[in-house]
């Protein structure tokens, strides 16, 4: 159970592409507004085929997180959301 508002990390994985991290940040901004500097980190898989992007947000409600997860997981370039 979460006490909102709270800090919340979202990890999004997909095929490695030059604009994948930008796509993830754009979707998150639609639901969360501005993202603080240093809140985004990314890591390429060992083989270089996949990219994971972690964004630390200030979650305001369960509904906000549900809507965010739904949009991220429904995007064709996203493989997994944690």
Low-confidence stretches: none
Q: Rg from C-alpha positions?
A: 12 Å
Helix/strand order, N-terminal first: EHEEHE
Number of strands: 4
Distance between the termini: 16 Å
Which structural class fits the helix and strand makeup?
A: alpha+beta
Largest sheet descriptor: 4 strands, antiparallel
What coarse outline follows from CA principal-axis ratios?
globular
DSSP helical segment count: 2
Helix content: 25-40%
The average pLDDT score comes to 95
| Arrangement of strands in the largest sheet | 2-3-1-4
Give the percentage of residues in beta strands: 35-45%
Word description of this protein:
Helices cover 32% and strands 35% of the residues. It has 82 residues and is α+β, with helices and mostly antiparallel strands. A four-stranded antiparallel β-sheet has the order 2-3-1-4, covered by helices on one side. Helix 1 (20-32) packs antiparallel against helix 2 (62-74). The longest helix is centred in the N-terminal third of the chain and has 13 residues, at 20-32.
Write the layout of secondary structure elements.
Blueprint: E1 6-15, H1 20-32, E2 40-44, E3 50-59, H2 62-74, E4 78-81
Antiparallel strand pairs: 1-3, 1-4, 2-3
Helix pairs in contact: 1-2
């Amino acid at each position: 159970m979460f006490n909102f508002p709270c800090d919340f990390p979202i990890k999004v994985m997909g095929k490695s592409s030059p604009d994948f991290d930008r796509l993830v940040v754009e979707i998150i901004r639609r639901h969360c507004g501005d993202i603080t500097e240093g809140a985004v980190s990314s890591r390429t898989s060992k083989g270089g085929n996949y990219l994971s992007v972690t964004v630390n947000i200030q979650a305001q409600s369960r509904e906000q997180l549900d809507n965010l997860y739904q949009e991220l997981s429904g995007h064709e370039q996203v493989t997994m959301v944690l």
